[in-house]
Amino acid sequence: MNDSSTAVPLNFLNHKTGLWSWLSSTDHKRIGLLYLYSITVFFCVAAVLGLLMKIEKFAPGQTIMTAQTYNGMFTIHGIIMIFIVVIPGLAAVFGNILLPIMIGAKDVAFPKLNLFSWYVYITGAFLGLYSQFAHGHVPDTGWTFYVPYSAEATSNVVIALTAAFVLGFASILTGLNFIVTIHRMRAPGMTWFRMPLFPWSLYATAWIQILATPIIGITLLMVIAERTFQIGFFDPKLGGDPVLYQHLFWIYSHPAVYVMILPAMGVVSEIFPTFSQKPIFGYGAIVFSSLAIAFVGYLVWGHHMYTSGMSYQARWAFSLLTFLVAVPSAIKVFNWLSTMYGGSVDLKPPLLYAISFIFLFSIGGFTGLTLGSLATDIQVHNTEFIVAHFHYIIFGGMGFGFFAAIHYWYPKIYGRMYSNRWAYIAWGILFTGFNILYFPMFIMGIQGMPRRYFDYDPKFTLGQEISSIGAFILIIGLIAMISNLVYHRRKGAIAPANPWHGVTLEWQIPSPPPHENFDEVPVITHDPYVFDHPYTK
Amino acid sequence: MKNHDDHITSYSLNWTVLIVLLILTTISILAIKMHLGAYTVALALILASVKVTIVLTYFMHLKFENLLLRLMVGGVFLLFAIVIVITFIDYYFR
Fold first, then answer.
1. How far apart are CA A169 and CA A209, in angstroms?
2. Residue A148, preceding bond cis, omega within 30 degrees?
3. Which helix (H) or strand (E) element contains residue A20?
4. Distance between CA atoms of residues A208 and A198, nearest Å
5. Could you give the CA distance from residue A145 to residue A166 in angstroms, rounded to a whole number?
6. How far apart are CA A393 and CA A260, in angstroms?
7. Which of A310, A321, A322, A325 to mutate to test the interface with B (most CBs of B within 10 A)?
8. Are A110 and A524 in contact (CB under 8 A)?
9. How far is CA A432 from the centre of its chain?
10. Do A317 and B92 touch (CB under 8 A)?
11. A17-41 pLDDT tens trace
12. Which of A233, A242, A351, B18, CA to CA, is 20 to 30 A from A38?
């Protein structure tokens, strides 16, 4: 092209073209986008399943599906959302795209292993879907695969277990890659405490991924062995102990909650300083609270098992530890709020989502204390209170953290701006729908509405109707948000390199980033959130 | 960088480590026949921990790594030890 004014500079999106160039790329940014697109597709599938469940519950009795279908629906909704969407979510997408750039590296430590992780992930994801359509019944154990039912059920449990096992491998490989990348590939001058907070959160997350995930992998294999070869691990008839399964499952699955939420905390720790144009308040406190969450979060799994027949001594020990883990989370919240205090606050969509994250996550956190207390937990155990709490933490926390991240880094990734107006509208619908959907479940849970029931006592009809209407509003909000982002991918205004006046390294390179990120390896001479440094002018 | 320093271990050291590992494995097998009851598991875990430490130290060259990395590996072991102890609190008091 001779007309240089219309020439698009080479970047990671256009330096090679064609489907194969994407499927065989070892560029961390392209792999991050492969994860983004895969996760989005699976998220939409699971969201539709969630909507169908809420339609079923719009009225008492059977409406659009049988009880068995409902059991299959909540199982696959949980498997997709937890193992395919939320656990890899932020780390695999934004960690891949941004971690090397934010620490001044050209790629992750093991680029081929990184691509391999995505293929492992896709294999696991399709195995999960296959379990729905393979010969036999749809798995109906719930995403927790509790024995003894999962060891005896005649549905396709083995395929679903294998899917979760394979997905765990992808998670371990990504975590390993990130730890080595952070240890070995930081730019000259980027000491540990000059590293931005999102990489710090990924570092804490990666340790959980490589230490906890093997435990669930082995546990799921043990269930398969028990089903297939009658080896007695968990079945009392064979000399096993069903409570042991719950221990092993939650030794992984509670830290997994922090795999989901820590990167979201890292995202908002980037957003608050940028949109307040002010250094983060308590950098060190946020770093160490991330590490403390990763460590203490490992020791609280038993609060999922208060009613399982655990010893009293173990229950109170877990209750005490559960209260301790609330402390570092609260430290972070105070630091984020203090960052905004006295700053030049610019309420752009990423900040709006980040503030929503604090609001929703705090509701989830406070209701978590109700569940961490022995006495109150027994009152609301296995009710819709749990479902509401869980969704406030995971969807309100990780989900809104994810939405904050995509709105924050979208101009950097695609070199285009989305419509702020539509982003505000979509946020309003989403936030409203979210609260209408989930808040009534707290109340119904306290009143005794069990979870995982497709039918209910007529006294819950009003609450269920309100909740179902909220589901429709939420889906409309999601459609509005995704449409805004997809449409402006090609039609949006050209984004400058640094539209938000951020100060971390990703904002110092062009949008979209070049194939190898930096023309010259950057040399870091200052802390990560210095807003008046000449480097950022 | 420090981790790129040469650190060649001698054949004699590697053979010694291998023999120690084989002895510990033999003790693990013999321990099953000693009928120690609930302590069999504890003994097996202790022996396995010693073997892992030796493998990490000599075969995986942790001995030659920097202090931070050694502390991190130590921290991982400490974490697993705590997890196992907490799990057994349930079984002990149940």
1. 10
2. yes
3. helix A19-23
4. 16
5. 15
6. 10
7. A310
8. no
9. 21
10. no
11. 999 999 999 999 999 999 999 999 9
12. A351
